[in-house]
Specification:
- The protein is 31% helix and 21% strand.
- The chain is of the alpha+beta class.
- The protein has two domains: 121 residues; 160 residues, no CATH class.
- Strands 1, 2, 3, 4, 5 and 6 form a six-stranded antiparallel beta sheet that branches. Strands 7-8-9-10-12-11 form a six-stranded antiparallel beta sheet.
- A hairpin with a 4-residue loop joins strand 4 and strand 5.
- The longest helix is centred in the first third of the chain and has 25 residues.
- The radius of gyration is 20 Å and the shape is globular.
């Protein structure tokens, strides 16, 4: 059995991370172009699978298909409902070459789709067809990243069961390159100021139309140059940042405006899963208490295997 909580040094794989983010954007933008808008951009996300990351089912004309990153055999699979398939090997290759091969594979399957070639939420963005800069791919670190997503997905999914209100699926956003789960108070939020690089303000304002407590896993970058779990509230209520949060390694980042828990602290804990669940719960309570959420109506006991929720 591989290490369930593998080491994931951002410095060691940041070039692969940057390339992989752009590859996932190419796939994610394909889904964006073919799928009606769903609240909070949930329609564009990727899902963690037993082998990697996958789109949900998509339809182009009369063709139904799905795309999956396989981080075990390191293949991008394109599969259609009539048994057709194409594969691209995941290897060190420039984004421009990957994009050309991807478009060719779609065309061979009879799928034609146009996407916006400018990456989202990336500073100094280069159009996919012109990007000869990003070309790194380390199979070992791609696999480690996916294994962290597996364990994070399990904990996030359990955490999700303890909420009766509106709550997102556990899903992967290719723009910000993070796995996330979000709870909603049910109340409208003030308009988001926007200003995220290469992301229309209208998209951001729709995503944050209602109050949220959102948590996730992020491989690192910018002011946090290490893999970490995060949790934030929008709009952040007074007193949120000062709330006590477990474990001791967690802290509030003024630069990011959110609580941060280094992945390494979770990995090194005697019970990584419970340590992560404590962080998720405490940061949610911080948002809900400071924001005066109706916790009695929104919360329930965590889900149990094979046991229906007791309704009084």
């Amino acid at each position: 059995m591989p290490d369930l909580w593998p080491e994931l040094s951002y410095a060691a794989w940041k070039d692969t991370c940057a390339t992989l983010q752009l590859w996932t954007q190419i796939v994610g933008k394909t889904r964006l172009a073919l799928t009606p808008w769903l609240n909070h951009s949930w329609h564009v996300t990727l899902h963690v699978t037993a082998r990697g990351l996958s789109t949900p089912l998509m339809t182009a004309g009369e063709r139904d298909f799905q795309i999956e990153f396989d981080f075990i055999d390191h293949v991008l699979w394109l599969r259609t409902s009539d048994g057709g398939s194409r594969q691209l090997m995941l290897r060190p290759v420039a984004v421009a070459e990957f994009y050309a091969a991807f478009r060719h594979a779609l065309s061979e399957l009879g799928i034609e789709v146009r996407i916006n070639e400018i990456p989202n939420e990336v500073a100094d963005a280069i159009a996919f067809a012109q990007d000869l800069t990003h070309s790194a791919y380390d199979q070992d670190f791609a696999n480690r990243f996916w294994r962290v997503l597996l364990r994070s997905h399990e904990a996030f999914s359990l955490f999700r069961t303890a909420f009766l209100g509106k709550v997102s699926p556990v899903h992967f956003f290719w723009g910000s390159f993070d796995l996330a789960v979000t709870r909603f108070s049910g109340r409208r939020a003030p308009p988001h100021p926007g200003g995220i690089p290469h992301l229309p303000d209208a998209v951001v304002r729709e995503a944050y139309s209602h109050e949220v407590s959102s948590a996730g896993f992020w491989p690192g970058g910018g002011p946090i140059d290490y893999a970490a779990y995060y949790s934030y509230a929008y709009s952040a209520p007074e007193g949120f940042s000062a709330a006590p949060v477990r474990p001791a390694e967690a802290f509030f980042s003024k630069d990011l405006g959110e609580f941060i828990l280094p992945y390494e602290a979770v990995r090194a804990a005697s019970d990584p899963r419970q340590t992560l669940l404590d962080f998720l719960q405490d940061t949610y309570v911080a948002a809900a208490e400071a924001g005066a959420w109706d916790r009695a109506e929104l919360e329930c006991e965590p889900g149990r295997l094979g046991k229906p929720r007791i309704v009084g």
